[in-house]
Amino acid sequence: MKILQRSHPVLASLDIAKTVGFYEEKLGFHSIWMDENYGIVERDEIAIHFWKCADKLFPENTSCYVEVTDIDVLYQEMLAVKVVHPNGPLKKQAWGMREFAILDLDGNLIKFGEKIQ
């Protein structure tokens, strides 16, 4: 029996409206909640929450990992909107994943990975 079902990372945001807009426009998420202090976006089965902070140190030192299918399709999508991190191109990792990374407007690192079959 699976007890743990889903995880929703909660990332720091310097400006909730700008952060939510970036995730909608660049990453294909849609907003399901937003006020000046908190925001939530969703895409497929993934939700990401954002809390308002005033210190860029928080988002610049925060990350999350999203496991995906069809990573090649997602990678091409992210390349097209120019959000792939210069140090995070798609590559095979020794731990059995193919992954790439992006940075959002605030500096949060998002890694996307797919298990190697």
From TrEMBL:
**Pfam families the record matches:** Glyoxalase (PF00903)
Q: Which GO terms describe its biological process?
A: response to antibiotic
> Is Ribonucleoprotein a UniProt keyword of this protein?
no
Question: Keywords on this record?
Answer: Antibiotic resistance
Q: Does the keyword Repressor apply?
A: no
Q: Cite the VOC domain residue spans from the record.
A: 5-115
This protein's source sits in the domain of life called Bacteria
Q: Which InterPro entries match?
A: Bleomycin-R, Glyas_Bleomycin-R_OHBP_Dase, Glyas_Fos-R_dOase_dom, VOC_core
The record ties this protein, via Gene3D superfamilies, to: 2,3-Dihydroxybiphenyl 1,2-Dioxygenase, domain 1
Which CDD domains does this UniProt record tie to the protein?
Answer: BLMA_like
**Stated family:** Belongs to the bleomycin resistance protein family.
Know the name of this protein?
Answer: Bleomycin resistance protein
